Amino acid sequence: MLYYSKDLSQRNQCGTPQIMIISMLPVAAPDLLDPKAAVHNSKPRLSFSTKPVVLNTPEDECDTRTTVMRWKTVSAIFFLVVLYLIIGATVFQALEQPHESYQKSVILKEKLEFLALHSCINSTELEDLVKAGLSFIAPLMLYSSSGLLNLYCVKLPTRATIFTLKLLSFYLQQVVSAVRAGVNPSGNLSNQTSLWDLSSSFFFAGTVITTIGFGNISPHTEGGRIFCILYALLGIPLFGFLLAGVGDQLGTIFGKGIAKVEKMIVKWKVSQTKIRVISTLLFILFGCLIFVALPAVIFKHIEGWSTLESIYFVVITLTTIGFGDFVAGEKGHLTEGGSENLEYLDYYKPVVWFWILVGLAYFAAVLSMIGDWFRVISKKTKEEVGEFRAHAAEWTANVSAEFKETRRRLSVDIYDRFQRAASIKRKLSSELGINATMNQEMTPGKRTLSANLCEDKDTYPSLTLSLSPVPGALTRNGSLYLNGLSPDYADRQEIAIIENLK
Amino acid sequence: MPSASKSWLLLSGFVLFYIIYLLFGALVFSSIERPVEDELRRDTERLKEAFLNQSCVSAATLELFLSRVLAANKHGVSVLRNSSGRSNWDLASSMFFANTLVTTVGYGHPTPLSDAGKAFSIVYALIGVPFTMLVLTACVQRVMQPLVLAPVGLLQRSGLKPRPATVVHFLLLLVAVVLCCILAPAAVFSALEASWTFLDSVYFCFISLCTIGLGDFVPAARPGQPYRALYQVAVMVYLFIGLMMMYLLLRTFHKMADVHGLTTFFQLPRCEASLLGDDTEPIVGNDPTPPRPKDKAAAKPLDPGSQPSYNSINKG
């Protein structure tokens, strides 16, 4: 898990833009928490390699030089890691194997004693019993052995057999502790494969530094455990560098292939996004084929697992979860029903380990891609929500602007008519001597005036018709009397208030 | 600051969603695996009863019995415990299992047994692992400020130069993390688990926090464990916090390396190495690629490759 947290946008000195590689360092998800980072990660990184379609020659030269350089570094680191593993394997073997041998000899002794006193089961059957029993004892190492004894409290009549049973129980107790120590007590001492021979220790050291940690083998001595801690402290970062380098190489190889394909596709005038999507899909497809499907088929064939179990093993291993219920290359040891050591080809285990290495790099890329998609999705959702809000605000603003515009026109219209009516009235009243009821007609207008002015005070510059009591004189100030009805000169105070609201 | 509170909101949303994801996985695993487990347990109990009622154990009978027990054990059902004993797939244990799955620790005890469980765990892991990464990095981002940037600033103000300040701070942080995340929990574990010595507990804490997860020690596995669900939830929280601290350590270390120019120094041989003709750069413990770009991506508005001091990096 420590390997997976990022995709790096690596800008090498040549200036070719982002080739994504895997590294062991956590790249934060600042995009989600910091809006400023949106600038940095503007495009969703869908493709493993985001090289531009057109390759310039100087960049090409740079790239080849870079690739060559990196290849040498990577292989150097690779050999260093292998050396580290070999050293670890020898130390683990030195620490654990003596303990294992001691347990084995104890078990053998007990077994012989038991056989000597035993009546009901002959030695081959006992062998079968032990082998069968071990397969289920092994995973139950965590449980107490007293429960195990209860299993074998078979009711038998004679004292001899009761005594035999007690010895059997005791023997099984020894078996359990032997199994806890990692010893397989079945079979003769001579033709037995140790759990801590060099290749198994090598494999164990590999599972430690890749943080997979199957757990089918684990150190049982104190020294082994302390050494395991120290070993992991140094080995995990070292392996992280190797993984980064391998991921680099993978990315370069894939990027070159994709560039060629993109060159072809661009002739068909497909959009950039489509190219990206296609390259991502190709990456996933090919990667799955090479690193998942093919090994699954091989495991199914060699280990005898079902299809689902093989795929399950591949995924669980390559995400470094590593349960350990299925382990490639360990069939000969304490697995259920595994009574014979499968004859593995000599290079099976090293090939498995190498596959783990490259497959880890591939999986790290896939998982960072999925993480990227999460980020993009959440960012897009944020953006979309923001956009939606912006759209909504714009829409409301437009609508209200239009509305106000209409009202303004209407109010100007009304005002004009009103002015004409007023002038007609004045003429009439001057002729008839009637005082206009203009004041009363003003009041509702005044109220709505202030309300409307508050509404649009900070959105749009509005027109003011400040109406003077002199009939016919219209001046424009900057505020809009939406209703258009003019206040009297007695209300000039209100005009001032209303204008202050702007 | 509104943006800060918004970030906190987002972060807690993340964590909440993560917990929901775990619960969802726990429910699914529980519903898939538990019936299988119960049925197997019943079968093996019956088998054991039948076996015990015989007067003599012949090899053939024993063989048959053992093969049936083996098959049951392949599904994690042990005939050794009482049938009324706890299940491996009740809600708390399933949640614990889901947690070990998405943090890639993967103890291996218990493991999914039915085919449906395996298929679901594949999909669950493929989605859950990157999501967990995201949540963890988001959390680390959030604690960078109080745990890293602020103390370094404090150190600098009290007179240290920037570079030694970062080194001092990193060492202090290292000691603090080791104390709080490994030694103290190890003491607690060795008290709670009867058969674990202190060394075993330290070993367990370290193996879990590095996500190796060998599985030779698994907490809350004792048959008569009181408050088992609470214990398991507590271990889950501990794992999460511990992982966060490990990430924080890693980041601090790399920022420190940046400040000291180590990463820029070793990233020189990109194109220029061929000009220098130097192929034998020191390899041990250094790689040009990873540290530099990490901080490029993490340092948001800064140019790639320019890291004057990580106090100047934007405090998100």
Automatic annotation (TrEMBL), chain A:
It comes from the Eukaryota. It comes from Gambusia affinis. One of its GO terms (molecular function) is outward rectifier potassium channel activity. InterPro entries: 2pore_dom_K_chnl, 2pore_dom_K_chnl_TREK, K_chnl_dom. This is Potassium channel domain-containing protein. Coiled coil: none annotated. Belongs to the two pore domain potassium channel (TC 1.A.1.8) family. Residues 192-249, 288-375 form the Potassium channel domain. It catalyses: K(+)(in) = K(+)(out); Rb(+)(in) = Rb(+)(out); Cs(+)(in) = Cs(+)(out). Its main location: membrane. Keywords: Cell membrane, Disulfide bond, Ion channel, Ion transport, Membrane, Potassium, Transmembrane, Transmembrane helix, Transport. It is found in: Cell membrane. GO terms for cellular component: plasma membrane. Gene3D superfamilies: 1.10.287.70. The chain crosses the membrane at residues 74-95, 132-153, 165-183, 195-214, 226-246, 277-299, 311-329, 352-374. It is a multi-pass membrane protein. One of its GO terms (biological process) is stabilization of membrane potential.
TrEMBL record, chain B:
One of its GO terms (biological process) is stabilization of membrane potential. Residues 278-316 are annotated as: Disordered. Belongs to the two pore domain potassium channel (TC 1.A.1.8) family. The chain crosses the membrane at residues 6-29, 122-144, 164-189, 201-218, 230-250. It is a multi-pass membrane protein. Its main location: membrane. The keyword Zinc does not apply. It is found in: Membrane. Glycans are attached at residue 82. One of its GO terms (cellular component) is plasma membrane. PANTHER family: POTASSIUM CHANNEL SUBFAMILY K MEMBER 6, POTASSIUM CHANNEL, SUBFAMILY K. Gene3D superfamilies: 1.10.287.70. This is Potassium channel subfamily K member. Keywords: Glycoprotein, Ion channel, Ion transport, Membrane, Potassium, Potassium channel, Potassium transport, Transmembrane, Transmembrane helix, Transport. The keyword Metal-binding does not apply. Residues 306-316 have a biased composition (Polar residues). Residues 81-144, 178-256 form the Potassium channel domain. It comes from Gambusia affinis. InterPro entries: 2pore_dom_K_chnl, 2pore_dom_K_chnl_TASK, 2pore_dom_K_chnl_TWIK, 2pore_dom_K_chnl_TWIK2, K_chnl_dom. GO terms for molecular function: outward rectifier potassium channel activity; potassium ion leak channel activity.
